[in-house]
């Protein structure tokens, strides 16, 4: 009981802190190069009614089973589950993640007719995929699996799960940026991933304590994170699909899955099944998606999976819809995105952005491509989408069909918290403010944005390093530019309708992008705990940490710096070839997962705490 009271106090304290969040940086994730772990309690919701397209459905359950090579034992294990699902609405929606399978196996067509989908899981099932300093091998095993499944008659794989993502740190920003977001040698690509795990915590004030605190007084879901493995492949309190690096739908998988349950309580544990039911309850309360990862029999029995189905049906009835991953993507595309997927037919950026544009805590949609320019605002009161025009395209398309980001930057420049967009490229220039129903152009919206010439957001299809970010926590973004040739920080003066240059820039020898418009290795994070973003910069040549001081002096406190010839306390964020090195900043640490950490370092990651970084000898 004492633990429950303490948890209750923790929830109240967190809710109070969350309420004080200005929200000025709620859109900055749109410009992250590849961060699969940004989603959390302070991220706008994407609830199931926004995309399901079916009246009365409030939550979705996805059953996904891993590691199939031979369909026969999977048919035997799944048959009772499929038959139970058919009793609901005649369908048997399950997603099977497979490394390799005979594309002409007769069982596949039978499954497809019942509602089963077959998805990718790498060809060789390496754990971790990125390991032994061989990036080419990791990319090849991913590509071979997808290209094999693409030869299944009248079928294309759509989703992916990383091998061993529940038992080790096998996921990496490098995977998203350099593998998933590319195409295979045959030109194939995927659209959805389900490899990051989800932990519900007592920090969510919307969840009853009995849902997140178990009968023994422990955190019901947090206890499954394998502490002996420094497992950090999860987000907290976000049971919704979210977008990573503009092209990937991430479908977080609920903890515990069957392996996490086995690791904590042994195989076939009733305690694990009990907690899985609670995860379903939490998901329904949040109107989210419960994605179950499981394996055939070793750690969970098929009758236990049926027990979960029975629980959802008995308690929630038609409020819960069972879908496979393919069906989830179809409904997201049709009902949320008006038929415009994140990736165009060639796998490139289709000009679709998911963001809370009116500041009401729910995701909205901006579509800006050659076929449609539309703003889609979710009305929680009516449960419907309200549309308006989007004033500018979000991507450009050349004569060969190559697509590039147009440089439209989203931020908060209004006291009411609604979004603004700013762009300056060869064809479009301006600043527009959203008022909840339409975008209004500001005739002076680019006034003052000069630094030895006009500040461009995109030029020649290259990112010019312009970002909108709230530096001082007042809820209004400043504008930063850092591209090597131009450096500056500007404040929007709403009364004068102009930008005012501030007396500082990004720290010396740092930039958001390089001359080619690629990630230069700069990240913002609160390293010293003062609730203001510091600058972490690291590439193949050098590293640095600059602490934020004020809106008068900016990042004037150079705390660390050095040449890459030293190992240094800050790992490399981008490589010499300009590719992503697999770094993310979360939970008070800088983490790295790539082919040089996999199977080489403990727990397959390089983990450096902010505390340890601050304890390093400061720069002179």
Q: What report would you give on this structure?
A:
The chain has 620 residues and is of the alpha+beta class. It has 3 domains: 1-24 and 354-390 and 397-476, no CATH class; 52-329, Glycoside hydrolase/deacetylase (TIM Barrel); 503-619, no CATH class. 21% of the residues lie in helices and 24% in strands. It is built from 11 helices and 35 strands. Strands 1, 2, 3, 11 and 12 form a 5-stranded parallel beta sheet that branches. It has a 4-stranded mixed beta sheet with strand order 4-5-9-8. A hairpin with an 8-residue loop joins strand 25 and strand 26 (478-482). Helix 2 (71-89) runs parallel beside helix 9 (302-316) and helix 8 (270-286) packs parallel to helix 9 (302-316). The longest helix is centred in the N-terminal third of the chain and has 19 residues, at 71-89. The radius of gyration is 24 Å and the shape is globular. The model is unreliable at 1-22 (pLDDT under 50).
Question: Which characteristics define this entry?
Answer:
TIM Barrel; alpha+beta; four-stranded mixed beta sheet; 35 strands; 11 helices; 3 domains
Topology (SSEs and partners):
Elements: H1 2-19, E1 59-65, H2 71-89, E2 95-98, H3 106-114, E3 117-120, H4 135-149, E4 159-160, H5 173-180, E5 192-193, E6 197-199, H6 209-212, E7 234-236, E8 242-244, E9 248-250, E10 253-254, H7 258-265, H8 270-286, E11 289-294, H9 302-316, E12 320-322, H10 325-336, E13 352-355, E14 364-368, E15 373-379, E16 384-389, E17 395-397, E18 403-405, E19 409-412, E20 419-424, E21 429-434, E22 439-442, E23 458-459, E24 462-463, E25 466-469, E26 478-482, E27 487-493, E28 498-501, E29 522-525, E30 534-538, E31 542-547, E32 557-563, E33 583-586, E34 589-592, E35 606-609, H11 610-615
Parallel strand pairs: 1-2, 1-11, 1-12, 2-3, 4-5, 5-9, 6-7, 6-10
Antiparallel strand pairs: 8-9, 13-14, 14-15, 15-16, 17-18, 19-20, 20-21, 21-22, 23-24, 25-26, 26-27, 27-28, 29-30, 30-31, 31-32, 33-34, 34-35
Helix pairs in contact: 2-9, 8-9
């Amino acid at each position: 009981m004492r633990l429950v009271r303490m948890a209750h106090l923790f929830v109240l304290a967190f809710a109070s802190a969350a309420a004080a969040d200005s929200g000025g940086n709620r859109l900055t994730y749109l410009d992250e190069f590849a961060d699969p772990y940004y989603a959390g309690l302070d991220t706008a919701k994407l609830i199931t009614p926004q995309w399901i397209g079916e009246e009365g459905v409030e939550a979705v359950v996805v059953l996904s089973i891993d590691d199939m090579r031979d369909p026969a034992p999977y048919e035997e294990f799944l048959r009772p589950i499929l038959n139970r699902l058919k009793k609901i609405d005649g369908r048997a929606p399950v997603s099977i993640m497979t490394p390799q399978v005979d594309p002409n196996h007769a069982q596949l067509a039978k499954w497809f007719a019942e509602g089963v989908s077959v998805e990718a899981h790498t060809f060789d099932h390496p754990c971790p995929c990125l390991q032994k300093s061989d990036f080419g091998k990791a990319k090849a095993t991913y590509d071979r699996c997808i290209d094999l499944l693409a030869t299944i008659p009248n079928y294309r794989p759509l989703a992916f799960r990383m091998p061993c993502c529940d038992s080790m740190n096998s996921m990496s920003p490098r995977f998203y940026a350099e593998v998933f977001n590319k195409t295979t040698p045959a030109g194939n690509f995927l659209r959805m991933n389900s490899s990051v795990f989800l932990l519900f915590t007592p920090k969510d004030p919307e969840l009853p304590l009995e849902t997140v605190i178990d009968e023994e007084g422990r955190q019901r879901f947090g206890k499954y994170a394998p502490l002996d493995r420094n497992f950090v492949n999860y987000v907290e309190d976000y049971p919704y699909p979210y977008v990573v690096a503009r092209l990937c739908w991430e479908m977080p998988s609920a903890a515990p899955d069957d392996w996490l349950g086995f690791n904590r309580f042994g195989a076939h544990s009733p305690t694990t099944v009990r907690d899985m039911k609670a995860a379903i309850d939490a998901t329904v309360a949040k109107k989210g998606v419960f994605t179950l990862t499981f394996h055939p029999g070793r750690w969970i029995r098929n009758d236990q999976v049926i027990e979960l189905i029975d629980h959802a049906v008995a308690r929630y009835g038609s409020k819960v819809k069972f879908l496979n991953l393919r069906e989830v993507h179809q409904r997201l595309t049709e009902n949320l995105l008006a038929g415009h997927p994140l990736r165009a037919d060639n796998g490139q950026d289709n000009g679709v952005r998911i963001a809370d544009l009116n500041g009401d805590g729910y995701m909205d949609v901006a579509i800006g491509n050659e076929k449609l320019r539309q703003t889609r605002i979710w009305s929680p009161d009516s449960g419907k989408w309200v549309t308006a025009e989007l004033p500018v395209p979000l991507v450009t398309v050349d004569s060969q069909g190559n697509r590039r980001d147009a440089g439209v930057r989203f931020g908060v420049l209004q006291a009411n918290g609604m979004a603004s967009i700013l762009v300056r490229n060869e064809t479009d220039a301006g600043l527009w403010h959203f008022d909840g129903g339409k975008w209004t152009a500001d005739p002076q919206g680019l006034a003052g944005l000069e630094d030895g010439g006009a500040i461009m957001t995109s030029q020649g299809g290259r990112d010019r390093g312009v970002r909108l970010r709230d530096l001082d926590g007042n809820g209004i973004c400043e504008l930063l530019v850092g591209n090597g040739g131009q450096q500056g920080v500007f404040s929007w003066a709403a009364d004068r309708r102009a930008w005012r240059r501030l007396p500082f820039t990004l720290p010396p020898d740092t930039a958001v992008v390089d001359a080619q418009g690629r990630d230069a290795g700069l990240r913002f994070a609160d390293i010293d705990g003062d609730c203001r973003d510091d600058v972490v910069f690291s590439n193949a040549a050098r590293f640095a940490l600059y602490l934020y001081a004020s809106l008068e002096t900016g990042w004037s406190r150079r705390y660390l710096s050095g040449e890459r010839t030293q190992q240094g306390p800050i790992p490399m964020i981008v490589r010499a070839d300009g590719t992503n090195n697999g770094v993310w900043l979360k939970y008070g640490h800088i983490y790295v997962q790539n082919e040089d950490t996999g199977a080489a370092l403990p727990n397959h990651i390089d983990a450096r705490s902010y505390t340890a970084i601050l304890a390093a000898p400061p720069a002179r």
